[in-house]
TrEMBL record, chain A:
<keyword id="KW-1133">Transmembrane helix</keyword>
<protein>
    <recommendedName>
        <fullName>Protein-export membrane protein SecF</fullName>
    </recommendedName>
</protein>
<feature type="transmembrane region" description="Helical">
    <location>
        <begin position="12"/>
        <end position="32"/>
    </location>
</feature>
<dbReference type="InterPro" id="IPR005665">
    <property type="entry name" value="SecF_bac"/>
</dbReference>
<feature type="transmembrane region" description="Helical">
    <location>
        <begin position="265"/>
        <end position="289"/>
    </location>
</feature>
<dbReference type="InterPro" id="IPR022645">
    <property type="entry name" value="SecD/SecF_bac"/>
</dbReference>
<dbReference type="Pfam" id="PF07549">
    <property type="entry name" value="Sec_GG"/>
</dbReference>
<keyword id="KW-0812">Transmembrane</keyword>
<dbReference type="InterPro" id="IPR022646">
    <property type="entry name" value="SecD/SecF_CS"/>
</dbReference>
TrEMBL record, chain B:
<feature type="domain" description="Protein translocase subunit SecDF P1">
    <location>
        <begin position="227"/>
        <end position="285"/>
    </location>
</feature>
<keyword id="KW-1003">Cell membrane</keyword>
<dbReference type="GO" id="GO:0006605">
    <property type="term" value="P:protein targeting"/>
</dbReference>
<feature type="domain" description="SecD export protein N-terminal TM">
    <location>
        <begin position="3"/>
        <end position="103"/>
    </location>
</feature>
<dbReference type="GO" id="GO:0005886">
    <property type="term" value="C:plasma membrane"/>
</dbReference>
<dbReference type="InterPro" id="IPR048631">
    <property type="entry name" value="SecD_1st"/>
</dbReference>
<dbReference type="InterPro" id="IPR005791">
    <property type="entry name" value="SecD"/>
</dbReference>
<dbReference type="GO" id="GO:0015450">
    <property type="term" value="F:protein-transporting ATPase activity"/>
</dbReference>
<keyword id="KW-0472">Membrane</keyword>
Length: 308, 615
């Protein structure tokens, strides 16, 4: 395998412009269209039923309409035999009876009784709590990362890694918004896992930049960054590929429940890889990182310098 | 000597691997659909009762795979879930209320593994099917009830001490005591200081009044007690429902999680969990005119009630016996075949009932059925949850003779209602009403689907990664794959030792870990390649590669760990399961990918001349 030598840093403006456009489009869509929030956050009821034969959605819709569930959305879930019914929080019906009443209504019109696959009811106040907890998890992770990276490396790296990570999160959320995919608890978990992954990738590159700053003193900052990104390139791509492979498996075979989770991570891995190659280092460069920032005498530096 | 592990290090790695394999083994064995029978009373079942249960099942022609009797519990294992369900129904029908029949999935872990304490992971509801409830305890109602209790107690104390008062009443958050004369105030304050320390005393400018309020500490105590008491009651009720391995946990300050694996009839579960149904016994007021009361003139000592058919009836304001005093109850039918509930009272209740029936033979007595219902209504565009206390007179009967501790109540709609009521009375009342604020039910077919799909995507994902590693890193890829296999064993072993709950997102976490944990190996191998390119010998390339990659692996994994911990802290339910597997996976992958791979590479390449690495 030959050494790669691509001028990533020299062409950083192309990547930065591309990312800026992606981010703006994503933020725009998030502002205008918003996210399709699942019942985990909005509250409401979700009923998944299964049939032996393909279900006639029109009949189901009409039945629910005439039974006083005009706000129900009915769609296939995975296969044509599986049907997902969603209901907004109902005011006049006690939530406890809701799913029973819906089932009773649809069983009247269909030939075969529906078998319940799952029922989820989330009260509005629980939805608010879940959303709040999700936000807090995001906030504290960010703060924790900032502190850790600033302590182990340097604050410009910390901010750079946060920029790269947030870029990935925003673009992934943007895609969810543009494609109208449902954002539920598992997707939130995927987003947090994505933060961890994207960061992992970025840290590996930064780690090499730090090492090279200390060893290759004659080179310019840009050159050092370029060398570092290039030598870690095969690792970055290899790891992304292995993660990508398991996610593809999860996406195609893991079933409908885990679908959006896999999509979020698939997007995330692609963008996480992109950002740690194209965004993380230029971000630190823009913040004015230089060799002096990492020249603090540390013991491990001496150890590494021991080699000729 | 380069690339050589001392004996202790080799042994350590091997021991960890061995432990990992042994403790993950129980998960390979499946479950037996089984029926668990225990006593509803505090006593343990005896051998002869076990024999009786066994013969009931065998006479009906079911094949029992294994029949175990241990610690007063009976466990009958079956070959199919169909047999299990039918046998359980049969037992419920044939055995009396004294037996609790529950469906269970009994692990088939062999005895030698069990003797090592190795047990299979606990499967989450999304994998085994069942229902998850989040209940919110109505704290305001609990405090209000306490206020009412204090109100009555203060009044009673005044009466006992012969202090004359105009009124004791609840008003704008206070219990206001109005005395006949201001001269009695010191005496009142003395009583309060002695017996009512949990009340804060305010002396308003009106000299004949004292205002009382629950102290903050008391309110906290009441709330704590309400949740604790409700959990006990819920546990009793769940036991009565016959659910094996239920989970009942407090979540936050005022919420309770109830998980019922295997339960499919959620309507009944909800009825049993959420209801605050109880009974009250009162004398019928026969002296006053009911019609006048309906028009608004309710006599002072009485209260207006309605019967099930809508007829109004006047009852004495004083309660003879409340649900709290009921210690046991069972359902049955009376001599006319109507559904009935047999009641047993405690000492105080029995004495009261005995005294009262003696004095009132020939007079009618009423049974009031009390239930709290929660309804959500929209008021001015705002959702308001509103709790309604439904009180209905279910039965009026003439007292024929003296009775005290044991008696029968009829007037219930159906045998089902009688069964539910007797269950609720037996399990005790909820200290405060609860609302179901979250419900997640997973059918058994979906649970099995989730397991199958999770397993399939795991196997395929693993195979893809392993293949890829071998193609790219050749022999070193094989080393990494061996480490990866052990990584999976260790993750499963740790999850099993912790008796953690495996959920579908948890499986996704393990799959994701498979993809991410080879990262450490990739980092190491890339470093080794680099060192080889720099002209190092294979031996020193291995040595330096591991050395240099270590710091990078540590830094990158700690940041990922940080995020996973946040996910664990703030996640709920299945998301927490994802975080747990991610955390364990990250930690164990550092061990297997670094130390495990190194050990194998040392064995293959260490201590000899190596011309070329297969990397």
């Amino acid at each position: 395998m030959s050494k790669t030598n691509i001028n990533f840093i020299g062409n950083r403006n192309i990547a930065l412009i591309f990312s800026a456009v992606l981010s703006i489009v994503s933020i725009g869509s998030l502002a205008v269209r918003g996210l399709q929030m699942g019942i985990d956050f909005t509250g409401g009821t979700l009923i998944e039923v299964g049939y032996q034969q393909a279900a006639d959605l029109t009949v189901l819709r009409n039945t629910l309409d005439s039974s006083g569930f005009a706000d129900a959305t009915v769609q296939n879930f995975g296969t044509t035999k599986d049907v997902l019914i969603r209901l907004k929080p109902h005011e006049d019906v006690s939530s406890v009876d809701l799913s029973a009443r819906v089932l009773e209504a649809i069983n009247k019109t269909t030939n075969e009784p529906a078998s319940i696959r799952r029922v989820e009811f989330v009260g509005p106040q629980v939805g608010d709590d879940l959303a709040e907890d999700g936000f807090l998890a995001l906030l504290y992770s960010t703060i924790g990362i900032l502190i850790y990276v600033a302590w182990r490396f340097e604050w410009k790296f910390a901010v750079g890694s946060i920029i790269a990570t947030f870029h990935d999160v925003i673009v992934t959320l943007g895609l969810f918004s543009i494609l109208g995919l449902e954002f539920d608890l598992t997707v939130l978990a995927a987003i947090l896992a994505l933060i961890g992954y994207s960061l992992n990738d970025t840290i590996v590159v930064y780690d090499r930049i730090r090492e090279n700053f200390r060893q290759l003193r004659s080179k310019s900052t840009e050159e050092i960054m370029n060398i570092s990104v290039n030598v870690t390139l095969s690792r970055t791509i290899m790891t992304s590929l292995t993660v990508f492979l398991v996610l593809v498996s999860l996406f195609f075979l893991g079933g409908e429940v885990i679908h959006n989770f896999s999509i979020a991570l698939l997007f995330g891995v692609v963008f996480g890889t992109y950002s740690s190659i194209f965004i993380a280092s230029p971000a630190a460069l823009l913040l004015g990182i230089s060799a002096e920032d990492l020249m603090i005498p540390v013991k491990e530096g001496a150890e590494l310098d021991g080699r000729p | 000597m380069q690339n050589h592990y001392p004996l202790w290090k080799n042994l350590l790695v091997l021991i960890v691997f061995a432990v990992g394999i042994i403790y993950s083994l129980p998960n390979l064995y499946g479950d037996d659909p089984s029926v668990q029978v225990s006593s509803t009373r505090a006593v343990k079942l005896a051998q002869e009762q076990a024999n009786q249960v066994e013969s009931v099942i065998k006479t009906a022609g079911f094949n029992i795979k294994a029949f175990e009797f241990k610690d007063g519990h009976i466990l009958a294992r079956f070959n199919s879930a169909d047999d299990q369900l039918k046998a359980a129904d049969l037992l419920r029908e044939k055995m009396s209320d004294d037996y609790n029949v529950a469906l269970n999935l009994a692990p088939t872990t062999p005895a030698w593994l069990r003797s090592l304490g190795a047990e299979a992971m606990y499967l989450g509801l999304d994998l085994r099917g069942g229902v998850h409830f989040l209940l919110e305890v109505d704290m305001d109602a609990a405090v209000k009830q306490a206020e009412e209790r204090y109100n009555d107690d203060v009044r009673l104390a005044l009466r006992n001490e012969k202090l004359r008062y105009q009124s004791v009443s609840k008003d704008s958050g206070f219990i206001k005591v109005k005395l006949n004369s201001a001269d009695d105030k010191p005496a009142l304050l003395k009583i309060l200081a002695k017996d009512f320390r949990s009340l804060d005393v305010t002396e308003p400018k009106e000299q004949d009044q004292v205002w009382l309020k629950l102290s903050e500490k008391e309110v906290r105590e009441i709330k704590k007690f309400a949740v604790a008491q409700n959990m006990t009651t819920l546990r009793n009720r769940v036991n009565e429902l016959g659910v094996a391995e239920p989970v009942i946990q407090q979540q936050g300050e005022n919420r309770i999680v109830v998980q019922l694996p295997g339960v499919q009839d959620t309507t009944r579960a909800k009825e049993i969990l959420g209801t605050t149904a109880t009974l009250e016994y009162r004398l019928v007021d026969v002296e006053h005119d009911v019609q006048k009361a309906v028009e608004g003139h309710v006599p002072v000592g009485s209260r207006l009630y309605y019967e099930r058919n809508g007829n109004p009836i006047l009852l004495d304001r004083r309660v003879i016996v409340t649900g709290d005093q009921i210690v046991d109850s069972s359902s049955g039918v009376d001599q006319d075949g109507r559904p009935s509930v047999n009641i047993s009272l405690n000492g105080v209740g029995g004495a009261k009932m005995g005294k009262l029936t003696q004095a009132n033979i020939g007079k009618p007595m009423a049974v009031v059925f009390i239930e709290y219902k929660v309804e959500t209504k929209v008021v001015n565009g705002q959702k308001v949850r509103h709790k309604e206390k439904v009180e209905k007179v279910i039965n009026v009967a003439t007292i024929q003779g003296v009775f005290s501790h044991r008696f029968q109540t009829t007037g219930l709609d159906s045998p089902q209602e009688a069964r539910n009521l007797s269950l609720l009375l037996r399990a005790g009342a909820l200290a405060a009403p609860v609302d179901i604020v979250e419900e997640r039910t997973v059918g058994p077919s979906l649970g099995q689907d989730n397991i199958d799909k999770g397993m399939l995507s795991f196997v395929v994902g693993f195979a893809l990664v392993a293949l890829f590693m071998v193609i790219y890193y050749r022999l070193c890829g094989v080393f990494a794959n061996i480490a990866l296999v052990f990584n999976v064993f260790i993750i499963i072993a740790i999850l099993s030792m912790l008796q953690a709950t495996l959920t579908l997102p948890g499986i996704a976490g393990i799959i994701l870990t498979v993809g991410m944990s080879v990262d450490a190996n990739v980092l190491i191998f890339e470093r080794i390649k680099e060192e080889l390119r720099n002209g190092n010998t294979p031996q020193s390339a291995i040595y330096i590669g591991f050395e240099k990659a270590f710091a990078t692996i540590l830094d990158s994994n700690i940041t990922t760990l940080l995020v996973a911990v946040m996910l664990f802290v703030f996640g709920t339910g299945s998301v927490k399961g994802f975080a747990v597997t991610l955390i364990i996976g990250l930690l164990s992958s550092m061990f297997t990918a670094i130390t495990g791979t190194r050990m194998i590479m040392n064995w293959v390449y260490g201590n000899r001349r190596v011309e070329k690495l297969s990397i």
